[in-house]
Amino acid sequence: AQKITQTQPGMFVQEKEAVTLDCTYDTSDPSYGLFWYKQPSSGEMIFLIYQGSYDQQNATEGRYSLNFQKARKSANLVISASQLGDSAMYFCAMSAGNTPLVFGKGTRLSVIA
Amino acid sequence: DVKVTQSSRYLVKRTGEKVFLECVQDMDHENMFWYRQDPGLGLRLIYFSYDVKMKEKGDIPEGYSVSREKKERFSLILESASTNQTSMYLCASTRDSITDTQYFGPGTRLTVL
Question: What pLDDT, on the 0 to 100 scale, is given for residue B2?
Answer without folding.
Answer: 64
